[in-house]
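in:
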């Protein structure tokens, strides 16, 4: 099965901007991965326009009243999505958080719109799900209706399931632009056979 156009375009842009790299990378978990994804590599208006369009594509049908972008990468991603939705005729308020509470001016951990109704979380990739759970705690007074991320690594956490599977089991609607399966399919047309074998071996060891 071939990749849909928007997934192909997204992955091609990831390679162009260096957001998706193949090689050997030590992750925060200590695992040595044959690929690495970093949405922070997107760095111009054209890239953010594409990101916003791809996020908007995968959340079609989801019901929400506002967006929440966890610091730090969720801030530009949530902004890009809000602009894409506005271009479609839907003006959605956006809320962000800070890593540390601001002790002057308006103070607090949150900035942007006041959270209200059903909130959709926007981030780049989930590993352990820590940032998402912290965001849900900060939004305890409203309903978190869903989560959208760029990449699902389809990788086990400490147990036998991934963070995304755990969140889905808790009833959260989680959408992703691409998964490891999509990355592997894309790699088959752009990478060497050794690199493809390395990804397959990594998935066999750590995949869900």
């Amino acid at each position: 099965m071939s990749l849909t156009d928007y997934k192909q375009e997204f992955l091609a842009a990831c390679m162009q901007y260096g957001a998706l790299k193949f090689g050997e990378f030590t992750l925060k978990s200590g695992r040595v991965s044959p690929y690495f994804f970093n949405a922070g590599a997107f760095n111009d208006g054209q890239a953010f326009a594409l990101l916003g369009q791809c996020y908007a594509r995968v959340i079609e049908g989801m019901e929400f009243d506002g967006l929440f972008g966890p610091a730090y990468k969720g801030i530009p991603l949530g902004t890009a999505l809000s602009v894409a939705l506005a271009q479609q005729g839907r003006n959605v308020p956006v809320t962000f958080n800070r890593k540390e509470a601001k002790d002057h001016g308006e103070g607090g951990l949150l900035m942007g719109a006041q959270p209200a109704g059903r909130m959709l979380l926007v981030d780049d990739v989930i590993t352990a799900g820590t940032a998402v759970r912290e965001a849900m705690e900060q939004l305890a007074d409203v309903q978190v209706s869903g989560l959208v991320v760029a990449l699902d690594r389809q990788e086990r956490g400490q147990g036998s399931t991934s963070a995304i599977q755990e969140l889905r089991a808790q009833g959260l609607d989680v959408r992703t632009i691409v998964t490891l399966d999509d990355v592997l399919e894309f790699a088959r047309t752009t990478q060497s056979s050794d690199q493809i074998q390395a990804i397959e071996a990594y998935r066999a060891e750590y995949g869900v």
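note: The mean pLDDT is 90.
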